Amino acid sequence: MPDVFNWQIGRNMAYEYEANRPQRQVAWVFDTNKCIACQTCTISCKQTWTWGQGQEYMLWNNVETKPYGFFPTGWDVRLLQMLGPGGWKDGIYQGKTVFESATSDERVKGWQPESEHWAYPNVGEDEPAGATDRGTYVPSIPHDVWFFYLARICNHCTYPACLAACPRQAIYKRPEDGIVLVDQARCRGYQECVTACPYKKVMFNNVSGTSEKCIGCYPKIEQGEQTQCVTSCIGRIRFAGFISAPGKVDEKNPIDYLVKVRKVALPLYPQSGTEPNVYYIPPIHAPLPFLRQMFGDGVDAAIETYKKTKDDPSLLGLQMLMGATPKIIHQFKVEKETAYGYDADGKELVNVPLREPTFIRKYFDDANNVYLHNIT
Ligand code: SF4
Ligand code: SF4
99: Cβ below 6 Å to ligand 1? Predict the structure, then answer.
């Protein structure tokens, strides 16, 4: 197998094909601290893309409660069991990826869910880990009792396991934006992709007999629009944009700034080896060992940086720009307590104050001898 460089695990690894990075790579940042599991993203995606026959069970976007929520059942626990103990040393992953774990008769180490595994998308919802006395206030961070919401879509990986596993070469990665698609005309429904995807984001359509997956809302991306799950997000936890290639950084690009400059947004299970392109700001209240396993060893520093957002104009500015425009923000700046977002041509898309202005109304109207606020 060819040897390719995976910056997220800090080393080279074996992959089915030679490295072939796209001209531009679409990427997302999700802030787990702000997600309220309203599932608006899930439903807006479903209403847009998976309302057809054979797609009834499909949720290209889903939001699960960690640690006990999964869709499909146990997807990440099984992934971790398959990979075995790994660990990190100086930013380098010491274990094996799904490609390196494969036996001689398979291209990718994986497992295939059965119908029942797709049947409980909200299993474990709001179910906390840990225990405390009834009614106890939990002031410390990380909390003794905790859960958090993990919103998930296809990661449009740089080294897609689905693509590597397909014997028909029916899955391709678009050179213009890195979006990973299944060619419905070439697919013969072998489901090798379903078995291979470590994130279980390819789903089989029993009616069409083909595999289907999140298409990264490519008609919107082509028009400079952010994806449906981003623009519908009630919690304004999401950004869609483009990430620069390894070794390159554009400090004015919101995705680069969060992922590469400040390193507050991290890939999900980077040890899979697929170089996923959805980046997560980890929850500040969950235990660090759990988070290190999920987001790699950059978690501790990411949380420390994130906790100072309130006094950090650039990070605060980006928080204010999340969900502030349906257009892709290619560049941003923060100046005089205002955050600005610009399109690819440098045209201003939006500006947002870092702090909402506050007006304190007089509580007593001297002229009319009356209170102005409700005191009853
Ligand atoms: S998340 Fe899964 S389906 Fe999406 S590109 Fe990666 S391997 Fe393929
Ligand atoms: S719409 Fe936003 S806040 Fe609501 S569940 Fe989806 S990601 Fe979370």
Answer: no
- Model confidence over 124-165: pLDDT tens digits? 999 999 887 777 776 777 888 899 999 999 999 999 999 999
Q: Is 194 in the pocket of ligand 2 (CB under 6 A)?
A: no
Nearest to 269 by CA among 82, 46, 114, 111: 82
pLDDT at 332: 98
* Structural domains present in the chain: 3-250+272-286 (3.30.70.20)
**Ligand 2 within 6 A of CB of 322:** no
Spell out the residues 6+ positions from residue 171 whose beta carbon is closer than 8 angstroms to its own: 160, 162, 163, 180, 181, 182, 183, 193
Could you tell me the distance, in angstroms and rounded to a whole number, from the CA of residue 186 to the centre of ligand 2?
34
Q: Is 110 a pocket residue for ligand 1 (Cβ < 6 Å)?
A: no
Write out the two tokens for 368. Answer: 């009319």
Torsion, Cα of 129, 134, 136, 137 (10° steps): 60
What's the start-to-end Cα distance of the chain, in Å?
A: 75
- Residue 63, ligand 2, Cβ within 6 A: yes
Give per-residue pLDDT as tens, 260-291.
999 999 999 999 999 999 999 999 999 999 99
Evaluate if residue 376 carries a pLDDT over 70: no
Which mutation among 231, 237, 281 tests ligand 2's pocket best, with the greatest number of atoms within 8 A of CB? 237
Query: pLDDT by residue (tens digit) across 163-187?
Result: 999 999 999 999 999 999 999 999 9
Task: Identify the three-state secondary structure at position 41.
Answer: helix
